[in-house]
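Sequence in, structure out. Go.
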Amino acid sequence: MVLGLLFACIKPTPTATAEAVPVAVATLMLPVSGEASAAPPDFEMGLAPVLNAHGTIPTFSTSAVEAGRLAARGDTAQRMAVLREVYPGAILLVETEPSYYSEMNGQYRWTVGVTLTITEGNAPPVAAEFDVPVFLAYHHEREAEAVAAATPVVSRRVGQLLDTWIAGRE
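Output:
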């Protein structure tokens, strides 16, 4: 009884919340063969919750025209320069490079190379590069399905990158 009253009197301390930061998110899928495009909608929808949870307001902005324009640039730094011309605030560039690896035990193994880069203004970018192995069940599934299957791992790594970036902003 006394313990219950003690807990009833303790009030939780409010946590300080920082102001949400608008972030332009450009997703780019660079297949080994074929044209570059925006990542599949399932991929972008999988990134949205982690972006919202880290105090950002994401705006997904990659159109087919913009994807082609970005792919024509040679590397990440040049792509970020193109995006800075259009978006003056914070920018997150998510580059995916799906490639078929092999057939293993009746499944099709793909490797999705991922490069994450976030920056704001003239600040130095924070980046991460990693590979995500995924298995697809059917032969007709290709690059878009491989990128969509990598969503859970990529969203977790986006969260880690945002933690690092936000800590550097403060």
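Check: The chain has six helices and five strands. The longest strand covers residues 90-104.
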